[in-house]
Design a protein that fits this description.
Length: 597
C-alpha cells in the first residue's frame, strides 16, 4: 500500500485538533519534467539516499568481476556500469521517489538570500549556523510525495563541449547514467507542506514562509540541475511572481523541425525527446566559442562557469551559474511527419533568466548568432534535408530552428512576433551585433582579464571572432523543402532540391566525411564538422531563389591563405576559397580568403 501523503494528512489533522491554530500550510504542485532530487550513478554499489522511499530493499548485481570495481572519493567500493547495461537491466529503480523536505528548505533559503533585506527574517524563521553554534528555526519542511507511486527512471548527463567545440575526439559522446524522479513525459503531482513549531511560530510566520516556498519553487524549481531545466515545478494556485532584484527573463517561441533528438535510450528511434539539456548544451557551447574568441582557454572556462555553472573535475563539487533555462512544451511536441523520410516537429517556449546586464548584453547577442548559423540538438550543423544511403534508402538529416520573440511596433506599440535571427540581407548588422557584445564582455571582465580578439587564432578549436571564422550567405534551395503548415515534405523530386549551394559544396567528395572540414558522424571514431549550415526562408533576389543558406566556417587554427603543397592539412582554407567563389555569395562576418590565393 502506498502511503506517500498520509503523514502530511495526519500531521495536518493533529495540528487542527491539538493546537487550534493555523500553523500548517500545504499546496499542490506539478513537476513539469524530471527532478534530480537524488544521485544514483551506481545504484548497486552505493547507499540509496535522498530520492528514494526510505523503506524496503532489493538485491541486484551480487556477482561482479573485480575489474568493474573502483574506489570512490569516500573510500567506498562501487560498481561501474555502462549506460546500455542499466537500460537493459534496471531502467527503473524498484523504489518510489519523493522530494526531501531538506531540499525544499535549502531552495527557499537560496531564494530569500537574493534579497539582503530579508536575511535577518530568514535566519529567525529558518534558523542558521554560526561556526559551531546552531540556532534552530521555527518552521518544519515536510517531505513531499507524489500523489501516486512514481518510480525513479534512468536518465543521462551527456557533456559535449570538449567534443563539439574543442574537437577532442577522445571526449566524444560518453553518456553518464543517473536516476531521476519522473520519466520526462508525464507531469507529476506532488503535495508540499510546512508547519510551524507550536509555541514558537505564529500564523504570520507560517504565512510568510509559505509565500517564500511558492516564489522559490516558481523561479528555481526543486532539486539539483535546476538551471538546466530539471525540477521545474508549477503551483496550481499560480501565485503572482516576485522577481529577485536585478534579474530579468527573455522568452522565445520556437519551432524545431529535426531528424530526431533522443534521451537515454538513443537506439529506440520511437522514443524522440527534446530535452532542456539539449538547449543548455547548445547555449554552453556557443558561449564558450565566443569567449575563446577574446581570452585564453583557462579564462574562458572560468567565465563560462560563472555564467552557466560548472563541475570541478578534481573535487566533484558543482558550482551554480547565474543563467537559468526553462523549457515549456506546446501541444505539438515530437510529432512525426505525415510522409517519409520521417522528421519530427517540436513547438514550445524557451525562457532564459539572468542578471539584467548579463542577459541583455552578453547572453542574448550570442543566442542571436547561434540561431542565425545553426540549429539545436542532433544534426544542428546541417539544414533539414534528404540524404540517401548507399543502399538507396532515404533519411532526413539536419534540423531547421525558428526562434522568435515579441517586439513592440514602432508606430502602434502593439507587440508583434519577429524572428530573432540576423538577416543575410543586412550584413552590417552582423559586425555591429558582435561589436556590441565585445564592448559588454570587456566591461564585465574589467581589469581582471585582458580581452584580445587575436589570442586564439592558432587554437585548433571552434573559436568565434572576426579573425577565426567566416560566415557567408549563399543562394538556394529554390524553395523551402518542407510544408510548415502540415509538417510534410514539399513535392520533392530528388535530394538535391532540399539543398542550397552551401550543402552542395560540403557534399563534394573532397570535403564530405573529411575530418578537417565535413566531419564524419559514422560509426567508430566520429568527428565533428568544422562547418555549420543553416537554411533561411529569405529570398536571394539576385539568384532568384526563395531560400538562402548561412554557412559558418571555423578556421580552427588554419590560415586563410592556401598552401598548394599541402592539400590534406589545409582543407579549411580550400573550403573558404570555394565558399567565397560561389556566385552571388555574400560575406556577412569574419575572415575572407587571402587575396594572394
Amino acid at each position: 500500500m502506498y502511503t506517500g501523503n498520509k503523514l502530511i494528512e495526519l500531521l495536518e489533522k493533529q495540528q487542527e485538533t491539538r493546537y487550534k491554530t493555523n500553523l500548517f500550510r500545504k499546496g499542490t504542485f506539478r513537476i513539469q519534467w524530471r527532478a534530480k532530487v537524488g544521485s544514483y550513478p551506481h545504484p548497486d554499489g552505493e547507499t540509496m539516499i535522498s530520492a528514494g522511499e526510505p523503506c524496503g530493499n532489493w538485491e541486484t548485481y551480487k556477482q561482479q568481476p573485480r575489474n568493474d570495481k573502483f574506489i570512490n572519493k569516500k573510500g567506498k567500493e562501487e560498481t561501474i556500469k555502462k549506460l546500455e547495461q542499466y537500460l537493459n537491466e534496471l531502467p527503473k529503480l524498484p523504489i518510489n521517489g519523493y522530494i526531501p523536505g531538506s531540499s525544499i528548505r535549502g531552495l527557499v533559503r537560496a531564494w530569500v538570500k537574493k534579497d539582503p533585506d530579508k536575511r535577518s527574517r530568514m535566519n529567525e524563521l529558518l534558523g542558521y549556523q554560526d561556526d559551531e553554534k546552531i540556532t534552530p528555526g521555527k518552521i518544519e519542511f515536510l517531505d513531499a510525495y507524489p500523489d501516486k507511486p512514481t518510480r525513479l527512471t534512468i536518465d543521462i548527463i551527456n557533456p559535449q563541449q570538449e567534443f563539439q567545440v574543442l574537437h577532442n575526439q577522445e571526449k566524444q559522446s560518453n553518456p553518464c547514467p543517473l536516476y531521476t524522479l519522473g520519466d520526462g513525459d508525464n507531469k507529476i503531482k506532488v503535495t508540499i507542506a510546512i508547519r510551524g513549531i507550536p509555541n514558537k511560530a505564529t500564523e504570520e510566520d507560517v504565512k510568510q514562509v509559505w509565500e517564500w516556498v511558492e516564489q522559490a519553487l516558481h523561479f528555481y524549481g526543486v532539486g539539483s540541475r535546476t538551471a538546466s531545466g530539471y525540477g521545474m515545478i508549477k503551483s496550481e494556485n499560480k501565485p503572482k511572481p516576485i522577481r529577485p532584484k536585478n534579474e530579468i527573463s527573455k522568452t522565445f517561441n520556437f519551432t524545431l523541425y529535426s531528424q530526431g533528438c533522443y534521451g537515454a535510450n538513443q537506439k529506440n528511434r520511437d522514443d524522440v525527446q527534446l530535452r532542456p539539456s539539449h538547449w543548455r548544451g547548445w547555449l554552453r557551447s556557443w558561449v564558450l566559442r565566443f569567449l575563446l574568441g577574446v581570452m585564453s582557454r583557462k579564462n574562458a572556462e572560468k567565465i563560462l562557469g560563472d555564467l552557466l555553472g560548472n563541475i570541478d573535475e578534481n573535487s566533484g563539487k558543482s558550482y551554480k551559474g547565474c543563467v537559468r533555462l526553462e523549457l515549456v512544451k506546446n501541444q505539438l511536441w515530437g510529432e512525426v511527419s505525415e510522409d517519409e523520410p520521417d522528421f519530427y516537429t517540436w513547438k514550445g517556449q524557451l525562457k532564459i533568466t539572468a542578471p539584467k546586464d548579463i542577459l541583455s548584453k552578453i547572453i542574448l547577442p550570442i543566442i542571436r548568432f547561434a540561431c542565425s548559423v545553426g540549429g539545436v540538438g542532433r544534426g544542428w550543423r546541417r539544414p533539414l534535408h534528404i540524404f540517401s544511403f548507399n543502399n538507396g534508402n532515404k533519411a532526413a538529416r539536419g534540423c531547421y530552428l525558428k526562434l522568435s520573440h515579441k517586439v513592440p511596433d514602432k508606430n502602434t506599440g502593439e507587440k508583434k512576433i519577429r524572428l530573432y535571427q540576423l538577416s543575410p540581407n543586412k550584413p552590417e548588422l552582423w559586425s555591429k551585433t558582435y561589436d556590441q557584445w565585445l564592448k559588454a564582455i570587456k566591461s564585465y571582465c574589467g581589469d581582471k582579464i585582458t580581452i584580445d580578439t587575436t589570442i586564439n587564432q592558432n587554437l585548433e578549436a571552434e573559436v568565434f571572432s572576426p579573425n577565426t571564422c567566416a560566415i557567408y550567405a549563399v543562394p538556394g534551395p529554390d524553395q523551402n523543402p518542407i510544408d510548415e503548415s502540415y509538417q510534410t515534405w514539399q513535392n520533392i523530386r530528388d535530394n538535391e532540391e532540399t539543398r542550397g549551394e552551401g550543402m552542395t559544396l560540403i557534399y563534394q567528395s573532397k570535403y564530405k566525411k573529411k575530418t578537417e572540414v565535413g566531419g564524419d558522424a559514422g560509426n567508430g571514431n566520429a568527428s565533428c564538422s568544422w562547418v555549420s549550415i543553416r537554411r533561411v526562408n529569405i529570398p536571394n533576389k539576385i539568384a532568384q531563389t526563395q531560400c538562402q543558406e548561412i554557412v559558418c566556417l571555423f578556421m580552427g587554427g588554419q590560415l586563410t591563405k592556401i598552401d598548394h603543397t599541402d592539400n590534406q592539412n589545409n582543407l579549411r582554407s580550400h573550403f573558404l576559397k570555394d565558399l567565397s567563389n560561389i556566385p552571388d555569395s555574400t560575406l556577412l562576418f569574419g575572415v575572407s580568403p587571402d587575396n594572394n590565393n
